[in-house]
Amino acid sequence: MDVPEEDVRSLIRDKYDGKDADLAGDIARLAAGEPLAYVIGWVPFYGLRIDLDTRPLIPRPETEYWTEKLIAHLRQRFGDTSFTLLDLCAGSGAIGLAVLKELPNAHVTFVELDSAHASLIGNNITLNGLDSARADIRSGDLFAPVAGMQFDVIATNPPYVPTLRTLPESVGAHEPHGALFSGPDGLSLIRRIATEARNHLTEGGEVWLECDISHVTEAGTLMRADGATRCAINEDQYGRPRTVVSYYP
Fold first, then answer.
1. Residue 61: left (phi > 0), alpha (psi -120 to 50), or beta?
2. What is the per-residue pLDDT across 108-141, written as a single tens digit (0 to 9) for each?
3. Considering only Cβ atoms within 10 Å of each terminal Cβ, which end of the chain, N or C, has fewer?
4. Smallest Cα–Cα separation from 105: which of 74, 73, 128, 66?
5. Are strands 83-88 and 48-51 parallel, antiparallel or unpaired?
6. Where are the alpha helices (DSSP H) in the chain?
7. CB neighbours (10 Å) of residue 93?
8. Radius of gyration, alpha carbons of the chain
9. Could you tell me how far CA 60 lies from the centroid of its own chain?
């Protein structure tokens, strides 16, 4: 596999700060199909440097796009009032970290199944100089680590790829399957989120949920069936239905 010159330039700039380096090992990794972000070791996201040392799911531009919309909405809704947000299935923590960065009145709880990634979130908070006093990082299965807790907003990019779908080699062979696949229709974890979310929301709470573009309508139906009064489907920057925003009484 040929390595694009653009990738080599990015490697030199972002991993080695433009300095001379022996790139043979890195280029071999790229030639074997490993994602550039893993080889560099970090990825930019909403003005943050998101470390990827534990190899979580690489934050995507689509997620960054709706996170920007979420932040604008939170700023408008809460103003200077303190509020709580749960970054569920947090991975690297990119969504919640961006909220912490932009909104000083936000208190963010991160929940991530993999304890190694949970530790990574803490490292990313420190790396970016964010206020750790407004962050709570917990490891465990979905809502179990926040039993009895409620939040004003839940933001989540859960696994949502159908298990039989063939992904590009750079994704399927290198990124964590547990963060990608979720049952035959990709909705297994979303069904659990829909069932449990209402118990973890304050009055007037919201859930911002990234979905597979082929199953956004079904995801909205699941959220309404378990307590959402209405759902809005938002498009990504490419005009594809990408997120379901659910509103609760």
1. alpha
2. 999 999 999 999 999 999 999 999 999 999 999 9
3. N
4. 74
5. unpaired
6. 5-16, 24-31, 36-40, 61-78, 94-102, 115-127, 169-172, 188-197, 216-225
7. 31
8. 18
9. 8
Does the pTM surpass 0.70? The reply is: yes
The per-residue DSSP string of 11-24 comes to HHHHHHTT-----H
According to DSSP, the residues that pair with 50 across neighbouring strands are 43
Is residue 210 within 8 A of residue 160, CB to CB? The reply is yes
The string of pLDDT tens digits covering residues 22-69 is: 899 999 999 999 999 999 999 999 999 999 999 999 999 999 999 999
Question: What are the C-alpha distances in Å from 177 to residues 1, 51, 91, 111, 148?
Answer: 23, 19, 12, 18, 29
Taking the C-alpha atoms of residue 126 and residue 122, their distance in angstroms, rounded to an integer, is: 6
SS3 161: strand
* Extents of the domains making up the chain: 1-40, 58-247
Q: How far apart are CA 248 and CA 125, in angstroms?
A: 30
CATH number for the region 58-247 comes to 3.40.50.150
User: Using CA atoms, how far apart are residues 50 and 178, in angstroms rounded to an integer?
Assistant: 20
